[in-house]
Amino acid sequence: MTRLDLEDTNFSMRIPDYVSRVERYMDAALPAQNMAPDRLHSAMRYAAFSGGKRIRPLLVYATGECLDIDPDRLDMPATAIEFIHAFSLVHDDLPAMDDDDLRRGRPTVHRQYDEATAILAADALQPLAFEVIATADQLTDSESRQLIALIAHACGSLGMTGGQAIDLESEGRALSVGELATMHGLKTGALISASVMSACCLAPNLQGSSFDAMERFSRKIGLAFQIRDDILDVEGETDVIGKPSGSDEALNKATWPALFGMDKSKRRCRELYESASDSLDAFGEAADSLRFLATLIVNRVQ
Fold first, then answer.
1. What is the pLDDT averaged over residues 244-265?
2. The model's pTM
3. What is the dotted CATH code of the domain comprising 11-299?
Protein backbone atom coordinates (compact mmCIF):
# COMPACT_ATOMS: atom_id res chain seq x y z
CA MET A 1 0.00 0.00 0.00
CA THR A 2 1.19 3.52 -0.75
CA ARG A 3 0.69 6.45 1.56
CA LEU A 4 -0.57 8.61 -1.29
CA ASP A 5 -2.44 7.01 -4.15
CA LEU A 6 -1.27 8.09 -7.59
CA GLU A 7 -4.75 9.43 -8.32
CA ASP A 8 -5.05 11.45 -5.11
CA THR A 9 -3.40 14.64 -6.35
CA ASN A 10 -3.89 17.02 -9.23
CA PHE A 11 -0.14 17.20 -9.74
CA SER A 12 -0.34 14.28 -12.16
CA MET A 13 -2.47 16.49 -14.41
CA ARG A 14 0.11 19.28 -14.28
CA ILE A 15 3.06 17.05 -15.18
CA PRO A 16 2.66 17.42 -18.99
CA ASP A 17 2.64 21.21 -18.64
CA TYR A 18 5.73 21.21 -16.43
CA VAL A 19 7.57 18.83 -18.77
CA SER A 20 6.66 20.99 -21.77
CA ARG A 21 7.75 24.05 -19.84
CA VAL A 22 11.23 22.80 -18.96
CA GLU A 23 11.73 21.37 -22.44
CA ARG A 24 10.95 24.77 -23.97
CA TYR A 25 13.66 26.32 -21.83
CA MET A 26 16.07 23.51 -22.66
CA ASP A 27 15.39 24.01 -26.36
CA ALA A 28 15.99 27.76 -26.08
CA ALA A 29 19.22 27.30 -24.12
CA LEU A 30 20.76 24.70 -26.45
CA PRO A 31 22.55 25.92 -29.59
CA ALA A 32 20.68 25.23 -32.81
CA GLN A 33 21.42 21.86 -34.38
CA ASN A 34 22.64 23.49 -37.61
CA MET A 35 24.97 25.89 -35.80
CA ALA A 36 28.67 25.04 -36.13
CA PRO A 37 30.02 22.76 -34.81
CA ASP A 38 26.79 21.14 -35.94
CA ARG A 39 27.68 17.51 -35.11
CA LEU A 40 28.45 18.48 -31.51
CA HIS A 41 25.25 20.48 -31.17
CA SER A 42 23.23 17.65 -32.70
CA ALA A 43 24.70 15.24 -30.14
CA MET A 44 23.94 17.64 -27.26
CA ARG A 45 20.32 17.83 -28.34
CA TYR A 46 20.15 14.06 -28.81
CA ALA A 47 21.37 13.61 -25.22
CA ALA A 48 19.06 16.25 -23.75
CA PHE A 49 15.91 15.16 -25.60
CA SER A 50 16.09 11.43 -25.11
CA GLY A 51 12.58 10.83 -23.78
CA GLY A 52 13.27 10.95 -20.05
CA LYS A 53 10.54 11.41 -17.44
CA ARG A 54 12.09 14.70 -16.23
CA ILE A 55 11.80 13.59 -12.60
CA ARG A 56 14.41 16.10 -11.43
CA PRO A 57 12.76 19.18 -12.96
CA LEU A 58 9.41 17.91 -11.65
CA LEU A 59 10.90 17.79 -8.16
CA VAL A 60 11.99 21.41 -8.60
CA TYR A 61 8.48 22.49 -9.60
CA ALA A 62 6.76 20.35 -6.95
CA THR A 63 8.96 21.82 -4.22
CA GLY A 64 8.15 25.24 -5.61
CA GLU A 65 4.44 24.48 -5.28
CA CYS A 66 4.97 23.45 -1.66
CA LEU A 67 6.87 26.66 -0.89
CA ASP A 68 4.67 28.94 -3.04
CA ILE A 69 7.43 29.99 -5.44
CA ASP A 70 6.59 31.52 -8.83
CA PRO A 71 7.32 28.88 -11.53
CA ASP A 72 9.05 31.59 -13.58
CA ARG A 73 11.82 31.54 -10.96
CA LEU A 74 12.07 27.73 -11.05
CA ASP A 75 12.57 27.31 -14.80
CA MET A 76 16.30 28.00 -14.76
CA PRO A 77 17.31 25.60 -11.96
CA ALA A 78 15.00 22.95 -13.46
CA THR A 79 16.68 23.37 -16.85
CA ALA A 80 20.19 23.43 -15.43
CA ILE A 81 19.69 20.30 -13.34
CA GLU A 82 18.30 18.39 -16.32
CA PHE A 83 21.36 19.38 -18.38
CA ILE A 84 23.60 18.07 -15.58
CA HIS A 85 21.60 14.85 -15.51
CA ALA A 86 21.92 14.45 -19.30
CA PHE A 87 25.67 15.06 -19.08
CA SER A 88 26.01 12.37 -16.42
CA LEU A 89 24.08 9.77 -18.44
CA VAL A 90 26.27 10.27 -21.51
CA HIS A 91 29.38 9.70 -19.40
CA ASP A 92 27.85 6.72 -17.56
CA ASP A 93 27.16 4.97 -20.89
CA LEU A 94 30.68 5.35 -22.29
CA PRO A 95 32.86 2.26 -22.91
CA ALA A 96 35.18 3.37 -20.10
CA MET A 97 32.25 3.37 -17.68
CA ASP A 98 29.21 1.06 -18.12
CA ASP A 99 29.64 0.52 -21.89
CA ASP A 100 25.90 0.57 -22.58
CA ASP A 101 24.41 0.44 -26.07
CA LEU A 102 20.87 1.51 -25.12
CA ARG A 103 19.49 4.39 -23.11
CA ARG A 104 15.73 4.94 -22.88
CA GLY A 105 15.19 2.57 -25.78
CA ARG A 106 17.52 4.41 -28.16
CA PRO A 107 21.20 4.00 -29.05
CA THR A 108 23.39 5.73 -26.50
CA VAL A 109 25.12 8.93 -27.64
CA HIS A 110 28.47 7.26 -28.31
CA ARG A 111 26.70 4.62 -30.42
CA GLN A 112 24.55 7.11 -32.31
CA TYR A 113 27.52 9.40 -33.00
CA ASP A 114 30.97 8.31 -31.79
CA GLU A 115 32.84 8.18 -28.52
CA ALA A 116 34.74 11.45 -28.94
CA THR A 117 31.59 13.36 -29.89
CA ALA A 118 29.73 11.87 -26.92
CA ILE A 119 32.44 13.02 -24.51
CA LEU A 120 32.43 16.51 -25.98
CA ALA A 121 28.63 16.71 -25.94
CA ALA A 122 28.55 15.82 -22.26
CA ASP A 123 31.41 18.21 -21.52
CA ALA A 124 29.45 21.02 -23.21
CA LEU A 125 26.18 20.28 -21.40
CA GLN A 126 27.78 20.71 -17.98
CA PRO A 127 28.96 24.34 -18.37
CA LEU A 128 25.75 25.19 -20.22
CA ALA A 129 23.86 24.30 -17.04
CA PHE A 130 25.77 26.91 -15.06
CA GLU A 131 25.49 29.48 -17.84
CA VAL A 132 21.70 29.09 -17.72
CA ILE A 133 21.66 30.02 -14.03
CA ALA A 134 24.33 32.72 -14.21
CA THR A 135 22.47 34.61 -16.95
CA ALA A 136 18.93 34.22 -15.58
CA ASP A 137 17.12 37.55 -15.23
CA GLN A 138 14.56 35.91 -12.93
CA LEU A 139 17.17 35.32 -10.21
CA THR A 140 19.07 37.70 -7.96
CA ASP A 141 22.87 37.54 -7.89
CA SER A 142 22.71 35.94 -4.45
CA GLU A 143 20.26 33.28 -5.62
CA SER A 144 22.38 32.50 -8.68
CA ARG A 145 25.47 32.05 -6.50
CA GLN A 146 23.60 29.74 -4.13
CA LEU A 147 22.24 27.64 -6.97
CA ILE A 148 25.59 27.38 -8.74
CA ALA A 149 27.28 26.31 -5.50
CA LEU A 150 24.52 23.77 -4.73
CA ILE A 151 24.53 22.15 -8.18
CA ALA A 152 28.32 22.22 -8.53
CA HIS A 153 28.66 20.40 -5.22
CA ALA A 154 25.99 17.87 -6.24
CA CYS A 155 27.81 16.94 -9.45
CA GLY A 156 31.42 17.13 -8.19
CA SER A 157 33.77 14.73 -6.47
CA LEU A 158 31.74 14.97 -3.26
CA GLY A 159 28.55 14.25 -5.20
CA MET A 160 27.60 12.52 -8.43
CA THR A 161 31.10 12.21 -9.93
CA GLY A 162 32.50 10.88 -6.67
CA GLY A 163 29.69 8.35 -6.47
CA GLN A 164 30.49 7.13 -9.97
CA ALA A 165 34.15 6.73 -8.99
CA ILE A 166 33.16 4.65 -5.96
CA ASP A 167 30.82 2.62 -8.17
CA LEU A 168 33.65 1.74 -10.55
CA GLU A 169 36.02 0.92 -7.69
CA SER A 170 33.40 -1.31 -6.07
CA GLU A 171 32.79 -3.67 -8.98
CA GLY A 172 33.25 -7.22 -7.74
CA ARG A 173 33.44 -6.14 -4.08
CA ALA A 174 31.02 -6.70 -1.22
CA LEU A 175 30.06 -3.43 0.44
CA SER A 176 28.44 -2.81 3.79
CA VAL A 177 25.03 -1.19 4.06
CA GLY A 178 26.69 2.09 5.00
CA GLU A 179 29.17 1.97 2.11
CA LEU A 180 26.47 1.19 -0.43
CA ALA A 181 24.19 3.91 0.93
CA THR A 182 27.06 6.41 0.68
CA MET A 183 27.77 5.43 -2.92
CA HIS A 184 24.10 5.65 -3.93
CA GLY A 185 23.65 8.88 -1.99
CA LEU A 186 26.43 10.47 -4.01
CA LYS A 187 25.93 8.92 -7.43
CA THR A 188 22.17 9.40 -7.69
CA GLY A 189 20.92 10.95 -4.49
CA ALA A 190 23.00 14.12 -4.65
CA LEU A 191 21.36 15.46 -7.80
CA ILE A 192 17.90 14.34 -6.68
CA SER A 193 18.48 16.20 -3.43
CA ALA A 194 19.75 19.27 -5.29
CA SER A 195 16.55 19.28 -7.33
CA VAL A 196 14.50 19.73 -4.16
CA MET A 197 16.94 22.05 -2.44
CA SER A 198 17.33 24.30 -5.48
CA ALA A 199 13.75 25.47 -4.95
CA CYS A 200 14.56 25.94 -1.27
CA CYS A 201 17.32 28.38 -2.29
CA LEU A 202 14.55 30.60 -3.68
CA ALA A 203 12.50 30.53 -0.46
CA PRO A 204 14.21 32.97 1.94
CA ASN A 205 11.69 32.31 4.72
CA LEU A 206 12.41 28.58 4.77
CA GLN A 207 14.63 28.16 7.80
CA GLY A 208 15.34 25.98 10.80
CA SER A 209 13.32 22.79 11.21
CA SER A 210 11.38 23.31 7.97
CA PHE A 211 14.60 23.57 5.95
CA ASP A 212 15.98 20.49 7.72
CA ALA A 213 12.78 18.55 6.99
CA MET A 214 13.00 19.34 3.29
CA GLU A 215 16.65 18.30 3.24
CA ARG A 216 15.80 14.98 4.94
CA PHE A 217 13.08 14.34 2.40
CA SER A 218 15.44 15.07 -0.49
CA ARG A 219 18.18 12.74 0.75
CA LYS A 220 15.88 9.85 1.60
CA ILE A 221 13.92 9.94 -1.64
CA GLY A 222 17.18 10.20 -3.57
CA LEU A 223 18.43 6.97 -2.04
CA ALA A 224 15.05 5.29 -2.58
CA PHE A 225 15.25 6.31 -6.26
CA GLN A 226 18.56 4.47 -6.73
CA ILE A 227 17.43 1.35 -4.88
CA ARG A 228 14.36 1.25 -7.13
CA ASP A 229 16.71 1.54 -10.11
CA ASP A 230 18.68 -1.44 -8.80
CA ILE A 231 15.47 -3.44 -8.44
CA LEU A 232 14.34 -2.60 -11.96
CA ASP A 233 17.68 -3.71 -13.36
CA VAL A 234 16.86 -7.19 -12.03
CA GLU A 235 13.09 -7.34 -12.53
CA GLY A 236 12.55 -4.97 -15.44
CA GLU A 237 12.30 -5.89 -19.11
CA THR A 238 14.62 -4.28 -21.62
CA ASP A 239 11.81 -2.92 -23.79
CA VAL A 240 10.19 -1.33 -20.72
CA ILE A 241 13.17 0.09 -18.82
CA GLY A 242 14.85 1.21 -22.04
CA LYS A 243 18.23 -0.42 -21.38
CA PRO A 244 19.47 -4.01 -21.17
CA SER A 245 18.09 -5.67 -18.04
CA GLY A 246 20.69 -7.38 -15.88
CA SER A 247 23.44 -4.98 -16.94
CA ASP A 248 24.46 -4.31 -13.33
CA GLU A 249 24.86 -8.04 -12.67
CA ALA A 250 26.85 -8.49 -15.89
CA LEU A 251 29.33 -5.84 -14.69
CA ASN A 252 29.38 -7.36 -11.19
CA LYS A 253 28.30 -4.02 -9.75
CA ALA A 254 27.60 -3.38 -6.09
CA THR A 255 23.82 -2.98 -5.94
CA TRP A 256 21.25 -3.40 -3.18
CA PRO A 257 19.71 -6.62 -4.61
CA ALA A 258 23.13 -8.14 -5.34
CA LEU A 259 24.37 -7.56 -1.80
CA PHE A 260 21.22 -7.90 0.30
CA GLY A 261 18.63 -9.71 -1.83
CA MET A 262 15.42 -8.54 -3.47
CA ASP A 263 13.17 -8.74 -0.39
CA LYS A 264 15.47 -6.59 1.74
CA SER A 265 15.92 -4.16 -1.16
CA LYS A 266 12.20 -3.66 -1.56
CA ARG A 267 11.78 -3.33 2.20
CA ARG A 268 14.53 -0.70 2.40
CA CYS A 269 13.05 1.24 -0.51
CA ARG A 270 9.70 1.26 1.24
CA GLU A 271 11.25 2.34 4.57
CA LEU A 272 13.00 5.25 2.89
CA TYR A 273 9.78 6.26 1.16
CA GLU A 274 7.84 6.20 4.44
CA SER A 275 10.52 8.20 6.23
CA ALA A 276 10.76 10.72 3.39
CA SER A 277 6.99 11.17 3.46
CA ASP A 278 7.05 11.66 7.23
CA SER A 279 9.53 14.50 6.73
CA LEU A 280 6.86 16.42 4.80
CA ASP A 281 4.28 16.32 7.59
CA ALA A 282 5.19 19.83 8.73
CA PHE A 283 4.09 21.22 5.35
CA GLY A 284 0.63 19.65 5.41
CA GLU A 285 -1.34 19.47 2.18
CA ALA A 286 1.04 21.94 0.51
CA ALA A 287 3.48 19.04 0.09
CA ASP A 288 1.04 16.74 -1.71
CA SER A 289 2.83 17.27 -5.04
CA LEU A 290 6.08 16.07 -3.47
CA ARG A 291 4.29 13.13 -1.89
CA PHE A 292 2.93 12.23 -5.30
CA LEU A 293 6.42 12.26 -6.85
CA ALA A 294 7.79 10.19 -3.97
CA THR A 295 5.07 7.63 -4.62
CA LEU A 296 5.82 7.69 -8.34
CA ILE A 297 9.54 7.15 -7.72
CA VAL A 298 9.10 4.02 -5.61
CA ASN A 299 6.42 2.52 -7.85
CA ARG A 300 7.84 3.30 -11.27
CA VAL A 301 8.46 0.48 -13.76
CA GLN A 302 11.11 2.24 -15.87
1. 77
2. 0.92
3. 1.10.600.10
